[in-house]
Amino acid sequence: MLTVNKLLPQGQGLAQVLLQRAPSVELDWDVRQKSRFDATDSSGRHLGIFLPRGTLVRGGDVLIAEDGSMVRVRAAPQPVLVVRPCSEHGTPFDLVRAAYHLGNRHVQLELQPDHLKFEPDHVLADMLRQMHLTVTEEQSAFEPEGGAYAAGGHSHGHGDHHHDHGHAPATVATPVRGKPLNIAVRAADAPHVHGPGCGHDH
User: Are 142 and 117 spatial neighbours (Cβ–Cβ below 8 Å)?
Assistant: First the structure.
C-alpha cells in the first residue's frame, strides 16, 4: 500500500503537463469527506490516504504520495436530487427560499447559479415540490459547500482574496434633533400565487 498524507487543493502550483501525466482516482462525496480511507488509482496502485482530520477532498485536488508521486482526484458521479425553479412561473429567488429551508435542516448542499444539488431524500424532495420547485433525480458529481469557516471549504478561485473591491465605506447619518427624516419606502411586488386555476402542473 502506498501512503498518501498530503493534499494540494486544485493542484495549486503544479504544472498542467505534470498533472495530465498523473494517475487519477474517482471518489464519491461519501469518501471525499473522510480524512482516512483506502482507494485504488487508475494505474492500479492501492492507496492508503491519511490526511489531517477535517480535510475535505474536492474534485480537482491532487494527492501527494510518500514517494512523491501525484494522484488527481475526480468527483465520481453519484445519485443526487437537482432542484430548479419552475420553468413556467418560477424565479431564481425560489432557489434562495429552497436553500434557506434545506439549510435549516442541515442538509449538505451544492449551490449553483441555476440549481441546487443534495443527496437523495424523498421527504425533502416532496417538501420542495410543494413549494413549486422542480426536483429531478440525476447522476452527477456532488460538491457541497464546506461552510464559511470550514478547513478545505469550497474554493471559488479568488486566491487569498486580499484585493479591494472598491466598495465605499458605509456611513451612518446622525439625525439632527427635532428634524424629521424622509425615508423612501417601496412596497414589495405581490408574489405569484400558486392556487386553483394556476394552470400548470408540478
Answer: yes
148, HSE (Cβ side, Cα atoms, 13 Å): 0
Q: Which residues pair with 118 in a beta bridge?
A: 81
Contacts of 73 (CB under 8 A, 6+ apart): 24, 25, 27, 32, 57, 58, 59, 60, 61, 62, 63
Distance between CA 139 and CA 126 in Å, rounded?
A: 19
What the block records as the C-alpha cell of 107 is: 442538509
Please report how the helices 122-130 and 93-104 are oriented relative to each other, as an axis angle in degrees rounded to 10.
Answer: 140
Cα 31 to Cα 24, 35, 58, 146: the distances in Å are: 15, 8, 10, 15
* SS3 label, residue 27: strand
Which pLDDT tens digit goes with each residue over 97-132? 999 999 999 999 999 999 999 999 999 999 999 999
Strand, helix or coil for residue 115: coil
- For the chain, the distance separating the N- and C-terminal CA atoms, rounded to the nearest angstrom, is 51
